[in-house]
Amino acid sequence: MRSIEESVVTAMDGSDKELFPFLPYILQDLWGIGSDPKTILSLIKKHRNNYTDIKVLDWVAAKALCQSSYQKH
Question: Is the pTM of this model over 0.90?
Fold first, then answer.
């Protein structure tokens, strides 16, 4: 199983987990970007009949996770 660092970097089309500590800087201007959860849920329901097993990555939460993890190091 991949670490959270590897998963986040891979999700951003990265290949080197050494990029992880730099993600807060790379993503620093993305705070205002995001979607309304109700909109996301309605899109999922519109395009999937069985959505109980679906996973959604909230990039704002991912950024906060990167920032939090980076500050621990």
Answer: no
